[in-house]
Specification:
The chain is mainly β and 156 residues long. The protein has one domain. It is built from one helix and eleven strands. A hairpin with a 5-residue loop joins β10 and β11. The protein starts with 5 loop residues before the first helix and ends in a 6-residue tail after the last strand.
Length: 156
C-alpha cells in the first residue's frame, strides 16, 4: 500500500520497540527496506504482525554509528539471523526537507546507532502470523490469512 500521508501514518503506527528483522539500502534503485516484528497489542495472544516499510527515492543516506564498534559492519544492510541479541527501533522521526522530499531518522539504540536519509515516497505492507514450535528451539510461522508457512527472518 502506498502511504499517502506519511506524518499521519507514523503518528498512528508507533514503531517503538518493534524488533528489526532486516534492513537493506539498494543504491541502484534508491530504496531502503525495513522489515520488523511490529508490536500490535490488539492481536490475540500468540499472533505477530510483521511490517515492511519500503522508502523510495532515497537520497543522502547516512549511517550514524553507535558506541559499539562491532555494529559498524552493519552499514547498508542488517539481517537479524546474523546478529547476536535483539535490535529494536527506539524512535522514528519524520520531517519535510522541501516540497518533494521527506527526511527520516531511525534510531536503533545507543550501542547500534541509526540512520537518516531523504526519500520521496513510502510503501507499507503487513502480514499476521503465528508461530508453531517444531523442535526444541525451532519454529515455523504460518500466515493467518493464507495458511502459508513463512520464514521469520524473511516474512515477505
Amino acid at each position: 500500500m502506498v502511504v499517502k500521508d506519511i506524518f499521519s501514518f507514523f503518528k498512528e503506527n508507533d514503531y517503538s520497540e518493534a524488533v528489526v528483522i532486516k534492513y537493506t539500502l539498494d543504491d541502484d534503485v534508491k530504496e531502503f527496506l525495513l522489515v520488523s516484528d511490529f508490536i500490535n497489542w490488539d492481536l490475540e495472544k500468540g499472533k505477530r504482525e510483521f511490517r515492511k516499510l519500503l522508502f523510495q527515492g532515497v537520497h543522502n543516506f547516512k549511517r550514524i554509528f553507535g558506541a559499539y564498534r562491532e555494529h559498524k559492519k552493519f552499514d547498508q544492510q542488517y539481517q537479524a539471523s546474523n546478529f547476536t541479541g535483539t535490535l529494536t527501533i527506539e524512535d522514528i522521526n519524520i520531517s519535510s526537507s522541501d516540497t518533494t522530499l521527506n527526511k527520516v531518522e531511525i534510531w536503533l539504540g545507543h550501542s547500534f546507532g541509526g540512520m537518516e536519509f531523504e526519500f520521496v515516497s513510502l510503501r507499507s505492507d503487513s502480514r499476521i502470523g503465528f508461530g508453531k514450535r517444531i523442535g526444541k528451539e525451532d519454529w515455523i510461522y504460518v500466515d493467518v490469512n493464507k495458511g502459508q508457512e513463512f520464514d521469520f527472518y524473511n516474512p515477505f
